[in-house]
Amino acid sequence: MEQPTPPTPPASAARPDAPAGAGARPVDSTRLPRRGAAIREVTVDGGPWQRLQQTNADATLDHCESWMDRLGWLANFDRVADGTTGPDRPGWQFSDSEVYKLIEALAWEHGRTGDPDVERRLRRLTTRIARAQDEDGYLNTCYGHSGRPPRWSDLEMGHELYCVGHLVQAAVARLRTSGRDELVEVAIRAADHVCREFGPGGRDGYGGHPEIELALAELGRATGERRYLDQARRFVDRRGRGDLVPPPLLGPDYFQDDLPVREADAWRGHAVRALYLAAGAVDVAVEDGDEELLGVIGQQWAHSVARRTHITGGMGSRHQDEGFGEDWELPADRAYCETCAGVASIMVSWRLYLATGDVRYADLIERTFYNVVATSPRSDGRAFFYSNPLHQRCPGEPSDEGEVNPRAEGGVRAPWFEVSCCPTNVARTLASWPAYAVSVEGDTVNLLQYAPGRVVVRLDDGAELALHIATAYPLEGEVTVTVERAPRRPVTVRFRVPHWASGATLATDPAISTHPGEPARRTARPGFVDVTRPLSPGDRLTLALPVAPRFTWPDPRIDALRGCVAVERGPVVLCLESTDLPGGVDIADVRVDPGHRPEDDGAGASAWCAITAASNGPAPDGAEPTPALAYGTERPAPPPCAAVRLRLIPYHDWAERGPATMRVWLPVASLA
Amino acid sequence: MEQPTPPTPPASAARPDAPAGAGARPVDSTRLPRRGAAIREVTVDGGPWQRLQQTNADATLDHCESWMDRLGWLANFDRVADGTTGPDRPGWQFSDSEVYKLIEALAWEHGRTGDPDVERRLRRLTTRIARAQDEDGYLNTCYGHSGRPPRWSDLEMGHELYCVGHLVQAAVARLRTSGRDELVEVAIRAADHVCREFGPGGRDGYGGHPEIELALAELGRATGERRYLDQARRFVDRRGRGDLVPPPLLGPDYFQDDLPVREADAWRGHAVRALYLAAGAVDVAVEDGDEELLGVIGQQWAHSVARRTHITGGMGSRHQDEGFGEDWELPADRAYCETCAGVASIMVSWRLYLATGDVRYADLIERTFYNVVATSPRSDGRAFFYSNPLHQRCPGEPSDEGEVNPRAEGGVRAPWFEVSCCPTNVARTLASWPAYAVSVEGDTVNLLQYAPGRVVVRLDDGAELALHIATAYPLEGEVTVTVERAPRRPVTVRFRVPHWASGATLATDPAISTHPGEPARRTARPGFVDVTRPLSPGDRLTLALPVAPRFTWPDPRIDALRGCVAVERGPVVLCLESTDLPGGVDIADVRVDPGHRPEDDGAGASAWCAITAASNGPAPDGAEPTPALAYGTERPAPPPCAAVRLRLIPYHDWAERGPATMRVWLPVASLA
Q1: A3 and A237 in contact (C-beta within 8 Å)?
Q2: For the whole model, what pTM was predicted?
Q3: Is the peptide bond before A247 cis (omega within 30 degrees of 0)?
Q4: What DSSP element (H or E) covers B495?
Q5: Between B331, B526, B619, which is nearest A560 by CB?
Q6: Are the CB atoms for A465 and A418 separated by under 8 Å?
Q7: C-beta of residue A300 within 8 angstroms of C-beta of residue A233
Q8: Rounded to whole angstroms, how far apart are CA atoms B35 and B22?
Q9: Cβ A502–B550 below 8 Å, yes or no?
Q10: Shortest Cα distance from B492 to chain A (angstroms)?
């Protein structure tokens, strides 16, 4: 059943004052009072995000292209163009999407840096895919050509709409960073084909893996063409009719096809599917002024974040369907936390933040950036975690650098996977990181994510505000903003104070001639804290966030974490890795003493722990034979042995020193 | 690589004194000093096992046949016979095996009771499958005929050898309970075909799902034909070469193809596969006197039972591959504990018990019978659990009695499943239950499982020992054995004292004129306790097992159970079901006080509990906004509210009163 299209005017193609490139951001609705910074409005010149971006540029982009070349995923396009397709096509049915996500990453990278080599690489790939497009706009290397299954013959698992979605997202990035080119033309032809095929009078269907929805919505915004938004809404509205036949042993919730989007109260089923769908639904809700739908997705977010999200921001607790579990089903060892679900969660939270301005969304984005997105790539950018568990009992097997890893388990970063969605998703996200760091609304610039560098934004009236940011965050908690240029009228610099930053302060220097009553240094409570005044070059605003290590406790309804505590330091989740254990100690035998605060070591922490001999022991009267099972009649109370101070490192750095066991959640025991 | 066949003499076809039927038991090696009771040597005339057997006979056998008829799984055989096969075959590729398991159940049921209606039903099915056998002995309705994939074209997932295995197991049951008939001839032709096809000079392969190994070994024992044993050994020895290509995202451990059987130190991968393989390996080891292999399987058992087995005896912690997890990976909520894995575990333990006489195997068999096998069927025998989790957070959806359940999740018993291996596995196991209750070695009768009824065994010299057993076990702990007939010389009655039965006693009446020094009542420590003497009709031996409810504690290395305790009563694991909670109370908010012993209520128990308001609550200074996530800086210490006494029921009875939430493992909190 189609929702009637409200008679809203078409969205304009771009903000009036924005030349191509200047206003480039992944999500851009003119209907909202706030916008994300354009990718060039924020420059990062140090710290972990600069390092991650640089490694992405220097290694990952090339790494991904090389693997796809080697595996024939690129050549699949040539075979379609040359008419030499057949039953022996390499790669999964969705491998085209990896090429598109790489192109999107290249588009953002070029938008960010203008690197001509990146531009050449992007054009070369574009030419190759363009040749594979059919006359009518259909573009897919798995379906619809000689020796291959017919078009749209497997809406459940075929991923054809999904692949078009990623193509369109790449093209939107290109359109906004560089302007209309061959890639944009290809994507528009493909999107037009989808609109004809699945629009009014066409197939009344929808795809098994959401993604087309958010892509078409953004294409509608970027081109000002209402029909793409209408088609996005159709896909969102159709879903939940139960048309899709689930794979064996899975249910329709795998596809989020068990309920219409607006009838669900939580995310369920395959996490990446659920999150891409939610992102598309927010886009549709925003463009149509559909407050009800927006409210529903916000409520799904609140429910799912409160009860189905791991401490890292990671989502997904089940391996079977790469899916969400039930409320409170958050096992550390089997945490799936697919890297792509982290990316998708940021996509949803970012849209909800733009729509509402609620700080909680930016908080979760930070958590997910530091503890999921930053965890996936190895420090050299050439291997990745697909799943991000919070507890590793056995060291992973060292991954062969020349081999495709068939499995998506955690433990060791692998150079490539059979299902290799994560590396390119990391690449496009890191390349566009600045766009999530800052937003602008009216005369306010919102500093959402902290990194050293420069923010130069155009306020809504066209005036420019330029801020220099100095910080060693998250190693240190001080963020110093120095005004470089500002209009001659009051403006607002709004700082995000993360929910954990109890005791933060904001200092202003000079101590404000214009606002004599305002103290030079004031408490900044979690949420947003504003400085509103005329600013002059040289003015300094210093936010001090307490990043000292702290204990974090789980809700008692999370059965898998009962009796455990985690340590966080600023936005960074820490972990204990076996590499830092005394020889011969099993990570299962470590207990942390919550009576001793963890101590700061400048990057991680050290915590007082007891090493126990974990064992039920024999029954005291000796009556019971050595129990065959792991259950006994005596309550186990292993005596703590020597207390030791153990080093905890950032979770995102684990397994960088070789295969290891690891725990984020540490059982507690008082040191007597 | 083939192991050389040692030049051992062929096993004899049957024990010399055993007419067809009299010596019928599922596992029967003449090479061992002990044998299980024959199915007619033990009669159960009351208690849960009589009830379960009767319901199986009255309802389940018919229920299974009706469903397979309705779904076309029986007609698949007719279509092969009639040459009308095609691509549209109903059922999974292994559906033939369900028919064979039903026939095996019928064979045991007929062997146990002699019911002529069961005999007719068995013959009717036999005729139907016999018509589908090819000239050369090949028998499979999924492969090898018109419109179907060729024979042996999918060794990984085709289950052809697996299906022959179940056919052969059915035929062995028939041969032993009734003699050589059409079913036996069909199975022998099929087994001969397998030996030709996969024997020396044939295909050097093995199947993805073990089962053929134990079946051929038993056929060799039952027929005295050495070649079946040789072929069983070939299959056991070939496995682990890595020939089998795993399904996407799974590894070769799924098939136990990662390591040769004798190089593995624990069970891993798909639980039913791992356990059927282990059972076959024990058979091969026993027949060949291969002590090394026997020791390896015993060691795998010890490791896997100590670290990879749930309190119910259930095995399997992962849904993705229906498989074992790592050591200590034993989540209550995602416990898979497939019913078939419980059956298979009993098959392995029984073989190891027969080979070694170790009481631990019989202990685990009892635990698994009461808490997995008895849990699966609904009280009317017409619906089943496939998976048996130990924690249900949301009530299951009521199952439509007329619909095939597509999912294997716990929560509600379903009449039939798409993959419906469990109902027929339960049926064949319940029909042969008496064969696991008693064993004989020399002049000793071992009473392993307790039920009211009669045990009439022939000792090894042909003398008969007849015992009447009166007990309300497990509701009550007293088991009274009254001698009915006994030879005029000392014999031994050996009682199993379960590992949990600390404080058991054994009383003899009369207090033994022949052994004046022996007290009338003595302590019986866990393990075995013997009465050895000449017995006279009317002599009474009374074992008293303490079945009062008791707390059971998990090994502290089981992360998922930290801070929890279970309550057991005799061999029965108890649970808290939401049906027994005060209105409005969430099962997540119940804490049990380990300071108060649970009290007996005659079947389950009642335990003192606190109902808590489980919530992190806001931070005390109010600085922190309502946290978006389920993690906070304050250690949660919800105050216990009113203490209440809550009823705990046998786990095997849960969900009989409608969909409910449930916990076996209860978080502890002291009532202040």
Answers
A1: yes
A2: 0.93
A3: no
A4: strand B490-497
A5: B331
A6: no
A7: no
A8: 13
A9: no
A10: 23
**Do the strands B505-509 and B540-544 form a parallel or antiparallel pair, or are they unpaired?**
antiparallel
Q: How far apart are CA B395 and CA B416, in angstroms?
A: 19
Band of residue B399 on the pLDDT scale cut at 50, 70, 90: confident
Q: How far is CA A249 from CA A479, A645, B124, B260, B418, in A?
A: 51, 47, 33, 30, 8
Residue B35: what residue type?
R
Integer Cα distance of A199 and A230 in angstroms: 9
ipTM above 0.85, yes or no: yes
Size of interface A-B (CB pairs under 8 A): 229
Which of B132, B46, B130, B30 is closest to B84 using CA atoms?
Answer: B132
Asked if A553 and B633 come within 8 Å (Cβ–Cβ), the reply is yes
Distance CA B428, CA B171 (A): 13
Question: Tens digit of pLDDT for each residue in A347-397?
Answer: 999 999 999 999 999 999 999 999 999 999 999 999 999 999 999 999 988
Round to whole Å and give the CA distance between A357 and A91. 41
Subunit contact A249:B407, Cβ cutoff 8 A: yes
Q: Name the phi and psi angles at B23, rounded to 5.
A: -105, 30
Query: Per-residue pLDDT tens for B303-334?
Result: 999 999 999 999 999 999 999 999 999 999 99
Q: DSSP string spanning A482-503?
A: EEEE--SSEEEEEEEE-TT-TT
Number of separate helices (H) and strands (E) present in chain B: 14, 23
**A315 with A275: CB under 8 angstroms?**
yes
The answer to whether residue B68 scores a pLDDT higher than 70 is yes
**Average pLDDT value over all residues in chain A:** 92
DSSP bridge partners of B481? B469, B541
Going from the C-alpha of A80 to that of each of A123, A128, A370, B190, the distances in angstroms are 19, 10, 40, 48
Least confident of A222-231, A410-419, B203-212, B369-378: A410-419
CB contact (8 A) between residue A406 and residue B246: yes
Residue of chain B nearest A555, judged by CA positions: B630
DSSP one-letter code for B367: H
Residues of A in contact with B529 (CB under 8 A): none
Reduce the DSSP state of residue A369 to 3 states and report it.
Answer: helix
User: Nearest CA to CA, how far is A628 from chain B (Å)?
Assistant: 5
Closest residue of chain B to A558, computed from CA coordinates:
B630
Q: Which residue has the tokens 């982290």?
A: A342
Using the beta-carbon criterion (under 8 Å), do B630 and A330 form an inter-chain contact? yes
Is residue A41 within 8 A of residue A434, CB to CB? The reply is yes
Using the beta-carbon criterion (under 8 Å), do A588 and B616 form an inter-chain contact?
no
Please indicate whether, in this complex, the C-beta atoms of B526 and A320 are within 8 angstroms of each other: no
Residue carrying structure tokens 């290809």: A186
Q: What is the mean pLDDT of residues A202-226?
A: 97
> What strand order describes the sheet that includes B444-447?
B34-36, B438-441, B444-447, B490-497, B527-534
For testing contact with chain A, the best of B631, B634, B641, B662 (most A CBs within 10 A): B631
Distance separating alpha carbons of residues A308 and A314, to the nearest angstrom: 9
CA angle B636, B640, B644 (to 5 degrees): 145
Q: Per residue in A77-99, pLDDT tens?
A: 999 999 999 999 999 999 999 99
Integer Cα distance of A672 and A399 in angstroms: 43
Q: Phi and psi for A18 in degrees, rounded to 5?
A: -100, 110
Asked if pLDDT for residue A250 goes beyond 80, the answer is yes
The predicted-structure confidence for A509-521, as pLDDT tens digits, reads as follows 877 645 556 668 8
| C-alpha–C-alpha distance, residues A204 and A234, integer Å | 9
C-alpha neighbours within 13 Å on the C-beta side of residue A482: 9
**Residue pair B353/B366 in contact by the 8 Å Cβ criterion:** no
